What we know:
The chain is an alpha/beta fold. It has helices spanning 17-29, 43-49, 87-103, 108-113, 118-135, 150-159, 166-183, 189-199, 212-219, 248-255; strands spanning 10-15, 35-40, 57-59, 62-66, 74-75, 229-236, 239-245. α2 (43-49) runs parallel beside α5 (118-135) and α3 (87-103) runs parallel beside α7 (166-183). The longest helix has 18 residues, at 118-135. The radius of gyration is 18 Å and the shape is globular. The mean pLDDT is 92.
Amino acid sequence: LKHDVTREDMVVAIGGGILTDITALAASLFKRGCQLAFVPTTLLAMVDAAVGGKTAVNFTGYKNILGNFYPAHKIIIDLDFLDKLPESEFENGYIEIKKIALLADSGLLEMIKEKAPLQALIEKAILTKKEFCLQDPNDMGERRFLNLGHTFAHLIETATNFNFPHGLAVAKGIMLAAAYSVFLGKLSQDEFNQISLLFEPYQLPNFPLLNFTEFKKIIRKDKKKGKEVNLILLESIYKPFLFPEANLKRLYNFIYQK
Length: 258
């Protein structure tokens, strides 16, 4: 208001995923929506936060609990921003690329195994994610597969007061989702081993120690929850599925091997 911004003016977010998420939410609310552009400066923002139109902020200690859908009108990706990116931030983005690669037979997984150039990986990851978003813009169907690993990741982040990098939490979440898929008889041990190799280079966090009451409280606040906790699991590589888990005690006992 102070600067007389109108709906025709463009709000530009130059930064990482937290900044693009907050800016997008603000742009969507101000006068019921003004123009929005992203210039993502981290690998994770380039392949995830800037693509697909989700906005979100944490609230009362819970991850991404407030938000809506408001796609940017322009997205400008400049790989020069990555030249000075810390290794930990690069890991965050590369883990997201690997997650996307597990969800669809788009050729991305083969490109990762063949050590394709980073620009080619970014382009393929964006195009693969874009297909999910175009099919399901409001996150009610297949787009939810992009949440592979995220229910566990958000639980880790919330329980540790967001002290773990998002990418590493997602990698840990993907491994837990894959292991639970094997436990339920859905995913083969061979494919689990293939997934493990993807995330072997990373120092993954231990799952935070929680009693069952604490575990239930956090996981029931997950934004993907319906009447049950909705987990994204794998029948095989390229074949994710939605699993409404009503038996939280079974899930808790599995995680803590009780």
